[in-house]
């Protein structure tokens, strides 16, 4: 089976709309299927068809609620906070992998156009089973970046945000529940979810 080829990464996520940049980043010629690593809402919900779905981990990345969302869990005037990945040596990020056809990326490129770029990554399925795949990451240079804040401040921000896809708090609480179900250790998301529950009590 052919795998995708990464093209030279000469474009950045500085623009608000990353759709066209993502379309230039990988060559899917002759490729039947590709693994996509999900670490946010994709862990508990996929609104596209897939061939196969499996829990997986990736190394060297930590999940953080540092990306602004003005089109899903917030608005342009009051962006919500959603997950992205930040590089961290030795970190392990647990998520859900989907084997999809290359056409699926056209849809996700558009849905995640708010600063996320596709990156190649090695997925670990356990039992020494690994595969190359793609993951969407919004980095600190992108136009919707909100960046670090204390988990208490993030919880207050999330509690006050909502957008076309629903309440920001629902996103974080569902993500925390899904991570617990996977047996994942994610102190950042769990701390924000705990602070949110206290705010809601
Ligand atoms: C996700 O894993 O839910 C995801 C996060 C950012 C962009 C695309 C998917």
Note down, in words, how this protein is organized.
- The model has no long low-confidence stretch (mean pLDDT 92).
- The chain contains 5 helices and 9 strands.
- The protein is α+β, with helices and mostly antiparallel strands and 201 residues long.
- It has a single domain, classed as Gamma-glutamyl cyclotransferase-like (Hypothetical upf0131 protein ytfp), CATH 3.10.490.
- The termini are far apart.
- A 5-stranded mixed sheet has the order 4-5-3-7-6. Strands 1-2 form a two-stranded antiparallel sheet. It has a two-stranded antiparallel ribbon with strand order 8-9.
- The chain binds benzoic acid.
- Benzoic acid (BEZ) binds next to loops.
Helices and strands, with pairings:
Layout: E1 5-6, H1 19-23, E2 26-27, E3 34-38, E4 52-69, E5 80-100, H2 103-111, E6 117-126, E7 129-137, H3 151-159, E8 162-163, E9 166-167, H4 168-182, H5 187-200
This protein binds benzoic acid (BEZ).
Strand content: 35-45%
CATH topology: Hypothetical upf0131 protein ytfp
**Low-pLDDT segments, ≥5 res:** none
Q: What is the architecture at the second tier of CATH?
A: Roll
Which homologous superfamily in CATH is the superfamily?
Answer: Gamma-glutamyl cyclotransferase-like
Number of contiguous helices: 5
Give the overall silhouette: globular
Return the structural class: alpha+beta
Determine and state the CATH class.
Answer: Alpha Beta
């Amino acid at each position: 089976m052919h795998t995708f080829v990464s093209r030279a990464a000469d474009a950045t996520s500085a623009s608000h709309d990353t759709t066209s940049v993502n379309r230039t980043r990988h060559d899917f010629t002759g490729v039947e299927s590709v693994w996509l690593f999900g670490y946010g809402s994709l862990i508990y919900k996929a609104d596209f068809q897939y061939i196969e779905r499996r829990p997986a981990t990736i190394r060297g990345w930590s999940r953080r609620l540092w990306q602004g969302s003005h089109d899903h869990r917030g608005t342009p005037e009051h962006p919500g906070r959603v997950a992205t990945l930040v590089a961290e040596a030795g970190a392990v990020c647990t998520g859900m992998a989907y084997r999809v056809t290359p056409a699926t990326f056209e849809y996700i490129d558009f849905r995640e156009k708010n600063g996320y770029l596709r990156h190649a990554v090695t997925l670990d399925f356990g039992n020494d089973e690994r595969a190359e795949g793609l993951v969407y990451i919004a980095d600190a240079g992108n136009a919707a970046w909100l960046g670090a804040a204390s988990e208490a401040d993030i919880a207050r921000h999330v509690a006050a945000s909502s957008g076309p896809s629903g309440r920001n708090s629902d996103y974080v609480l569902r993500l925390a529940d899904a991570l617990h179900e996977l047996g994942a250790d994610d102190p950042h998301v769990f701390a924000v979810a705990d602070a949110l529950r206290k705010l809601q009590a």
